[in-house]
Amino acid sequence: MPVLLKISNAVELADWEVEITQIRAQGAGGQNVNKVASAVHLRFDILSSSLPPFYKERLMALSDQRISKDGIVVIKAQSHRTLELNRQDALDRLQELIQGAVQVQKKRRPTRPTRGSQRRRVDKKTQRGKTKALRGKVM
Asked: Region Disordered: what ranges (predicted)?
């Protein structure tokens, strides 16, 4: 099974799981843009992939516009001029999406502001109030 994308040490995606098609790039680009299909459309089905269940759950829970309700990731890469670079860019973005979804966020521990920072904040507010008070009409 040829490996197309390495997500982590234990998780890899095979080339049959990712569907890559060539399309024409949009936007300005001169004469060449209308002739050459150098943009890439990447489709990846989360539910039918070989990803572990934890990965699938986390990806499906994401509220990302690139992921449809059916669990299909669609990535369009057209920022480079060559097909190879766009293909690699789309694969890199898919890898980032999957790795970002399974990354566990550190629990936030609430902290209190220090006494010095509180005092500085109040002093700045007082100073600002004095500055504004000086803007009044002169009698």
From this structure: 102-139
